[in-house]
Amino acid sequence: MPLAKIDERGRVQLPSHLRKRMNLKEGDEFLAEDLGEDTIVLKKINLRALLEDAIVKAKSIDLDKLEEEIEQESNQLARQKFKVSAR
What we know:
Number of strands: 2
CATH topology of the largest domain: Pemi-like Protein 1, Chain: D
CATH class of the largest domain: Mainly Beta
Strand content: 15-25%
Distance between the termini: 68 Å
Radius of gyration: 24 Å
Order of helices and strands: HEEHH
Strand order of the largest sheet: 1-2
């Protein structure tokens, strides 16, 4: 198992065979998660793909229906909070 070292600026260089196998390039971004017990997990993310997917999903939202659902939910919460019976 190859070692990776941290430099004076806190950067970690991944072993070259991993970079080649995973087709990692300069500028690729990762989520870093601390799992405790001296364990860190890196997950490669593609921000462009995430944003494009979010945009596609946002475009498919029916805003009128969303507004109606929010109003219904807020009315229900207000009735519960102020103990008012439904009409």
